[in-house]
Design brief:
The chain has 233 residues and is of the alpha/beta class. Helices cover 33% and strands 27% of the residues. It has helices at residues 44-51, 92-103, 108-116, 132-144, 162-174, 189-195, 219-232, and strands at 4-15, 18-24, 27-29, 33-37, 59-64, 67-68, 77-81, 150-154, 181-186, 198-203, 206-212. α2 crosses α3 (108-116). It is globular. InterPro entries: AAA+_ATPase, ABC_Gallidermin_ATP-bd, ABC_transporter-like_ATP-bd, ABC_transporter-like_CS, P-loop_NTPase.
Length: 233
């Protein structure tokens, strides 16, 4: 069996006359954290949305667990893309209860995911009163409800204060040992450097670099070299 939980070959997404994603071939290793890097507008979110069924690919292949990706695979994929989908007038537990009813999951799963994201003690506090970091963690809890094998997080630390970033970093790093592979998109290089095992760098819709993170290499220097070479080319 392939050691890659997800692979793409020449994955392409076209909007009108614009190629937002152009021939991207990713290899996401099982039980790892993969950092998808790129400037704003590089095509990161568009790529991730094709893995979650939010967008249809224009061409190319997506392989999940060794077979062609289909919407049936969404039962094994969790995602937090853009703003956490919260009912702000409901508590953390109530937000999760709505989803368990929709997904036909047991209530026991609510306590399990609240434990994972450290929100068990929020009681009846409405999510509208949560800090941004707590809202992000609740969004991740929702994404974890279906016990996914692959978790997709798009810019999860955006807008967080240093404490929120640290808490989220520790949470994300804990997932591979729980059997969850993470794809994390970001333009904050220092965060990815501390979380990811592998990185891919996308610029102008094209994957320009993909490798294991080298602790002896400065990620910012590597990123700037890759992006500048693309612009000069």
């Amino acid at each position: 069996m392939s050691k890659y939980i997800l692979e793409t070959k020449k994955l392409t997404k076209i909007f009108g006359k614009q190629k937002a994603v152009n021939n991207v071939s990713l290899k996401i290793e099982d039980h790892s954290v993969y950092g998808l890097l790129g400037p704003n507008g590089a095509g990161k979110s568009t790529t991730l949305k094709m893995f979650t069924g939010m967008l249809h690919k224009s061409s190319g292949d997506i392989t999940f667990k060794g077979h062609p990706w289909s919407r049936d695979d969404l039962s094994d994929i969790g995602a937090l893309i853009e703003t956490p989908p919260l009912y702000e007038n409901l508590s953390a537990r109530e937000n999760l209860k709505v989803r368990t009813l929709l997904l036909g999951l047991p209530d026991s799963r609510i306590d399990e995911v609240l434990e994972i994201v450290d929100l068990k003690n929020t009681g009846k506090k409405k999510s509208s009163q949560f800090s941004l970091g707590m809202k992000q963690r609740l969004g991740i809890a929702i994404a974890l409800l279906n016990n996914p094998q692959l978790l997709i997080l798009d810019e999860p630390t955006n807008g967080l204060d240093p404490l929120g970033i640290q808490e989220l970093r520790d949470l994300i790093r804990s997932f591979p040992e729980k059997g969850i592979t993470v794809i994390l998109s970001s333009h904050i290089l220092a965060e990815v450097e501390q979380i990811a095992d592998h990185i891919g760098i996308i610029t102008d819709g094209e994957l320009k670099y993909q490798n294991i993170i080298d602790p002896n290499e400065n990620l910012e220097d590597l990123f700037m070299t890759v992006v500048k070479n693309e612009k000069e080319g």
